Amino acid sequence: MKKRLSLAALIAAALCVGGLRSSQATAAGPTLTIGSEAPELDIENWMQDGNGFFKPVTEFKKDNVYVVEFWATWCGPCIGSMPHLAELQNQYRGQGVQIISVTNEDTETVNGLLKKEHPQEGKTFEEITSAWCLTSDPDESVSEDYMTASGANGIPTAFVVGKTGLIEWIGHPGSMDLPLEAIVNDAWDRAKFKVQYEYENRMEEAMQRLNTLVGTEKVDEAMDFVAEMIKEAPSQEYKDHWTNMFHNVKLVTGQLDKETTEFYQGLLAQMEENKDPQAALGFANMLFGVSQQGADLGTLPTDTLATVTALEPTIPESYKVLYYNTIALMNELNEDFVKAAEAQEKAVGLATARQAKRMQPYLDELRKKAGIEEDADEEDAGEDNDKDAGEKAADDQE
């Protein structure tokens, strides 16, 4: 008997709610959350001050708004967020908003970065970060008070301290624009966001429990658990997330029925309507993975093939290898091995030499199933084509 497919792959490939957070809070829960009083700042080194506009902060002034953001010189997303932070600080300059970025690295490390040129902006890091307060706190006291206390486990992470000195928002600085605007304009619903934030922090634990239940073949318990999560979801987006998981469980445990088939057909229709080829390709490859565990997929391979094919005009060149490979997979599931081999041949033809070498065995397998034989001359020609194929597709599809 084939093993049940772990939900880990499905969780990664499913159409989940974006931006779900994970937490490393202690078993007793985080001591810093939305609505908590913001800890005072005990920062050792203030290295940029907004070109003299700002002063070092220890206590938070009433009626002012502060962004305490944690970053590091080695953190790519932190580097990518810097121009955005500069724009935000300039946008709110003079409106009682102060952005303070904190790293646990020493000043020597930070100064080494400041002298370099930002890879996208054509300016030095010193020029970009001069818009707001850049600081260094090697003893990690501020990080402990904020990051550790809240259970946050990734950077960049920003904490918005509101006009009354309470934590109003926690998240990635790239998602901060609308919350910050609402907080500045006294239009922020802290209580509503707290419910959402604390629910998101429970999501990782819930997903791990679901995966364990399915992995140990406690299918009935898994279904009951998901049904309960749907009932408790605080908003429609979370209901949608758990509804998706409900049907994923049915699919991966071999319980595909009319309800679940129609659910996935609806998702495919949305992908086509929204012209979302990446979602369609991801779903198709997830479906193929499920098929390898012996699950009955009903008409879903045919339905998925139709959607992916309809989206061909929207496929960027960098995804063409993946597109044709996916067409091959869906045709194989439909036992149309001739069309599968034709699609895989196009994929191999567009691939880099290294990709083509990896993909060729699958093409050979499909040709064998289709009863197609390749003579030696064609094989030699294929090797020559591989040498030129590197110019046709990006390695990042690997």
From TrEMBL:
Residue numbers spanned by region Disordered: 366-398
Q: Where is the composition biased (Acidic residues)?
A: 373-386
Biased composition annotated in UniProt, kind: Basic and acidic residues: 387-398
* Signal peptide (from-to): 1-27
- Is Chaperone one of the keywords UniProt gives this record? no
Q: What GO annotations for molecular function exist for this entry?
A: antioxidant activity; oxidoreductase activity
The record's CDD domains line, in alphabetical order, gives: TlpA_like_family
Q: Which GO terms describe its biological process?
A: cytochrome complex assembly
Matching Gene3D superfamilies, A to Z? Answer: Glutaredoxin (3.40.30.10)
Q: Which GO terms describe its cellular component?
A: cell envelope
The Thioredoxin domain sits at 32-193
InterPro entries per the UniProt record, alphabetical: AhpC/TSA, Thioredoxin-like_sf, Thioredoxin_domain, Thioredoxin_ResA/DsbE_sf
Alphabetized PANTHER family for the sequence: THIOL:DISULFIDE INTERCHANGE PROTEIN DSBE
Protein known as: Thiol-disulfide oxidoreductase ResA
- Give the originating organism: Rubripirellula amarantea
- Gene that encodes the chain: resA_3
